[in-house]
Design brief:
Elements lengths: L2 H25 L7 E8 L3 H14 L4 E4 L4 H5 L1 H9 L3 E4 L27 H19 L6 E2 L6 E2 L2 E2 L11 E2 L19 E2 L5 H14 L2 E6 L1 E2 L6 E2 L1 H13 L4 E3 L2 H16 L4
Length: 274
């Protein structure tokens, strides 16, 4: 072999190894699949149990249901929530009273009793922890994630979740975006809020996550009605069918499992190299 061919062979081998290493780095956080998808459902409403949960169970997929501790649907249908947890779905924490910042524009729906801008940080933290006690009584678990009501993270300029970091594996926000495991902020995980978009739009988001090897989080409220923010049953079904048909390439899991994987990956990457 001539020196030129030997050099070309070495360069080719190096590039091939680098390609494999890059692919492994991008897919390893997602259980060696192309991407991760998390299906989240907010507010503990009847359609969670009537529509969303049966749809997930019918195709063997698991999601995260962010429960408001004071929701009458939690109290009235507690055995069904417990069965959902036993089936592998996560019961996430969406606070005790779902307080939102009433001082922001477009917040006329916020009542004086649930106005986060009038809370103290201590009150907000205490209510979130009280909701955790309730959820643990339902599912017997201690590991779970949090979702900011209305996406509001601050009280008087203070990020109240800073006092809750040890209580949760992660917290879901409302900023849309696709992120690699290294880019994910576990105190404010990106998500796409869905309200009226088509099934094609939902599937296209998944395809983008597959191509970019990123985390995609869907934020649903009503599924087939039941809330002012809604996804059509047909569109929701189309998304689930695509995920099921491509489960060999897409890791679909509750937020608590994906966040734990992201955390482990980030900590592993942060270890000093000897």
């Amino acid at each position: 072999m001539t020196p030129a061919l030997r050099l070309l062979s070495c360069v080719s081998a190096f590039l091939l190894a680098a390609s494999f290493a890059s692919h492994a780095q991008t897919t390893r956080p997602w259980n060696n699949k192309q991407c991760a998808v998390v299906l989240t459902y907010d507010d503990a409403i009847d359609v969670d149990l009537d529509n969303a949960l049966p749809a997930l169970d019918s195709v063997g997929l698991r999601g995260t249901f962010y429960l408001i501790g004071s929701s009458p649907v939690v109290a009235r249908r507690l055995p069904e929530w417990r069965r959902a947890a036993q089936s592998g779905h996560e019961l996430g924490n969406h606070a005790l009273m779902h307080p939102c910042d009433g001082s922001l524009p477009g917040r006329s729906f916020v009542t004086p009793d649930t106005d986060l801008s009038k809370y103290t940080v201590t009150r907000a933290v205490s209510e979130v922890r009280a909701a955790n006690v309730l959820l643990s009584a339902i599912d017997g678990k201690t590991d779970r994630t949090f979702a900011y009501p209305c996406g509001d993270r601050q009280i008087g300029g203070t990020y109240f979740y800073e006092q809750l970091r040890q209580d949760f594996v992660g917290a879901r926000g409302v900023t849309a975006g696709l992120q690699t495991a290294a880019q994910v902020d576990l105190a404010n995980i990106d998500s796409y809020m869905i309200n009226g978009q088509s099934g094609d739009y939902l599937v296209d988001l998944v395809k983008k996550a597959q191509q970019s090897h990123t985390l995609l989080v869907f934020l649903f409220h009503g599924v087939g009605g039941g809330h002012g923010l809604n996804v059509d049953l047909k569109a929701h079904r189309q998304l689930l069918r695509y995920l099921k048909a491509h489960e060999q390439d897409i890791w679909v899991a509750p937020m608590v499992e994906v966040a734990a994987k992201v955390k482990a990956t980030q900590q592993g990457n942060a270890k000093p190299r000897g």
